[in-house]
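hey m, so remember when u said the tokens were messed up on ur end? i reran from scratch. heres the input so u can diff it against urs
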Amino acid sequence: MTGIRLRPGREVSVRLVKGERPAVCYPATVVADDGVHLVLRAAWAKPTATDFGVVRFEPGDVLTEHYWRDRWYSVKEVRDAAGTLKGWYCDVTRLPAVGPEGLVTEDLDLDLWLSADGGTVLRLDEDEFAASGLAERDPMAASRAERALDELEILARSGELTAMLSG
């Protein structure tokens, strides 16, 4: 897969579209881009903490974000301000649109959490996904989203997810 590659060290914009909710936009720095796998680093974008139930994102947290141009998900490694690993938050998304200024991705409401010790793998927000109506509006996208969540869970439980991110 080819297309626009973003230069490491460059600041870009990330725009996360979430259905009818306002988009989340924030700056990130390009760590690497091989044309398929794009790695960005960003600070937690909100001035206040957000508790996701399984993890609390706080000001000072640093996210190393992994996007693939051929996968229906992204993975965010979450570390606190001191560098301690909290875990990996995985979003099921449509394929990202990567352009010269950054990327836009559509969150499909399915998420997965993998704890820092690898012992906890949780599927999240399946109720939000069902309520979103995606299965009725776009059955093919809903099917792809469900398969992406299944793939993420298999990768997380097998240890392949963390190996994939470090290699």
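this time it looks ok to me. The first strand starts at residue 11 and ends at 18. if urs says something different then somethings off w ur setup not the seq
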